[in-house]
Amino acid sequence: MTPEQMRDASLLELFSLEAEAQTLVLSAGLLALERDPTQADHLESCMRAAHSLKGAARIVGVDAGVSVAHVMEDCLVSAQEGRLYLRPEHIDALLQGTDLLMRIATPDNNPERVEIEAYGVLMARLLDPMAAPAPVTAPVASVMAELQLEPPTPKVEVLIPVAELQPAEPPRKAKRTTENGERVLRVTAERLNSLLDLSSKSLVETLRLKPHLATMQRLKRMQNKGLRALENLNVHLKEHALSLEAQEALDDARRLLAESQQLLVEKNAELDEFAWQASQRAQVLYDTALACRMRPFADVLAGQERMVRDLGRSLGKQVRLEIEGEKTQVDRDVLEKLEAPLTHLLRNAVDHGIESPEQRLLAGKPAEGLIRLRASHQAGLLVLELSDDGNGVDLEKVRRSIIERQLSPAETAAQLSEEELLTFLFLPGFSLRDTVTEVSGRGVGLDAVQHMVRQVRGAVVLEQTAGEGSRFHLEVPLTLSVVRSLVVEVGDEAYAFPLAHIERMCDLEPADIVQVEGRQHFWHEGRHVGLVAASQLLQRPASQNSQQTLKVVVIREREAIYGVAVERFIGERTLVVLPLDERLGKVQDISAGALLDDGSVVLIVDVEDMLRSVDKLLNTGRLERIARQGSQAVEAARKRILVVDDSLTVRELQRKLLLNRGYDVAVAVDGMDGWNALRSEDFDLLITDIDMPRMDGIELVTLLRRDNRLQSLPVMVVSYKDREEDRRRGLDAGADYYLAKASFHDDALLDAVVELIGGARA
């Protein structure tokens, strides 16, 4: 590449950056002018933006940009001088010009020359409707038709004033700046993530100086004691006559010890100062790196006002978008994921919520509909409220649609509450549109919004008032890079629960734990909350501590709520999220990792996944009871049996028989579920059926016998197949006992279990 080509490439890049900034100014200013066409400040800002783009385009030799920006500037100058009153068609044309300029500045999306000519004809017609007639070329006419504008009969020749032919202003070095005047540089997301990772590790490393400094202080105290002991020894020895050599040796020892203590004091002071300075700088580095990921909420709103305005006009509606909290700081990754759901909700509000001007006037409302979007920080979360003053949701139409789609019987649908009806709007494929349009009716509805919000560990709720409008309430984390968490101890390891999902922490007395329907619960805010052991969920050894109280974390995800028993509360920490290695895949109940202040690793709990694990344990009957103090040894001594059968009746029958005999029993619904249970828990016996979905009993036994840890586990096969070849097939696979269900009775099963593993107590 020649120096001239390098120079041109850099200028084109600068022109693209300037076009991106100036078109944002134009879009915002033109939308404001549409509401009040005489606002001098907005006219001035738009004119200057068009003028700057014209000069920049001329410098880099982009003639199309010069032409488009020039006619836009002419229109805005005419409005400034009072020769032209900006009407909606002028705003439409100027916004089209803004889009054209952005396309011109984008190398891969340059418009055709005919589009530029068509735009010049359009602007000439709007500026001078009485211009002399002249034919319009066919390509220009076709482009005008695509723009849904009637082509003018005259061909207007746009004259460029002499002043515009003068040499352009000297090129200025384009710098992207914030509203505070700070320069903006582009940095890849990978480098930013690496910087944050390194700064967090640097902070952890500086904290490791604290215990080292404490050890040095301890050494200083020990030396001080040694010096005093030597002084006492010298006093006692004065009563005895010492040789000159002994006295000199004693004096040398005292001197050397005093000098070493003085040196240690000086170096300790230096180390203390260094540790303080290093920790302060590491903290500033970390905070700065973290701030680099935070962007104002306004970054996701670029073009949204324009989109709402254009969509409203295309539907024959007058709609205005008001935004509050544009400066609210949010993580860059969260902003990127919010753009699509916010766009969908805004389009949904314009299409479904806001009525036509005629309907609004009849209802006593202003002709112009209003959509409000408000962003704020609350309890470590970004809270978004998107509301409109439209007609709300037609609940009866929702009810009819539920019945028509056979989602619920008519009798049940008639009794659904408003809240229950609104939840149907979030189902995949659910739509209130009977026909497909460019905006609605394709079945891609609020389920996509809910899915994208859940991807960032957020939640969305819909509320509405008939005739007054709807309101969407979204809560998402401020950042995916840092999470404020409660760190607890489970099985002598640290785990972190994100505070956003914690309802409360509490200490439970043994008397507070009650049995409801065979499961452990405790009373919390007027309702029974299920109690589960974190050690079972996270597959850690159960605690053997003898504390009277039970440490419980109450977690909530929407309507699901459970109490999770842990060993110890370590405390609240702000953790830098470190993603798990992709080769691990999805680790059950874990979302990511982090480092504590002392450099030790902590795993961050995936609360939503954990709640699914609790439901699975409940449905399969494998949820363990949390033993109260004094009964742990007894509970631990009970022998455990895993029953694997796809028949609910057979499974429950075997479970109850074994429970009544004193065994601890878990169940699995098929071979795959049983294999997962065997790998994660310890059992004394496996009882399995043969014919099951996903994995049959023969495959299960074969896998078990190949596993080094499980190959010695006793196995009993209980099957309806009682032919000799079936029996031989089960025993050849590795079963220790084969029992046919045809001859199955209580004593036969229990006798076989006792024969294999003995009684229920170890």
TrEMBL record:
Substrates-to-products reaction catalysed: ATP + protein L-histidine = ADP + protein N-phospho-L-histidine
GO molecular function ontology, one term from the record: phosphorelay sensor kinase activity
Sequence ranges assigned to domain CheW-like in this UniProt record: 482-616
Residue intervals of the HPt domain: 4-108
Family annotation (PROSITE patterns): CHEW (PS50851), HIS_KIN (PS50109), HPT (PS50894), RESPONSE_REGULATORY (PS50110)
Residues recorded as bearing Phosphohistidine in the entry: H51
Domain Response regulatory: 640-756
SUPFAM superfamilies linked to this entry: ATPase domain of HSP90 chaperone/DNA topoisomerase II/histidine kinase, CheW-like, CheY-like, Histidine-containing phosphotransfer domain, HPT domain
EC numbers: 2.7.13.3
Pfam families from the UniProt entry: CheW, HATPase_c, Hpt, Response_reg
Key words, A-Z: Coiled coil, Kinase, Phosphoprotein, Transferase, Two-component regulatory system
Keyword Transferase attributed: yes
Name assigned to this protein: Chemotaxis protein CheA
Species of provenance: Pseudomonas mandelii
Lineage of source species: Bacteria, Pseudomonadati, Pseudomonadota, Gammaproteobacteria, Pseudomonadales
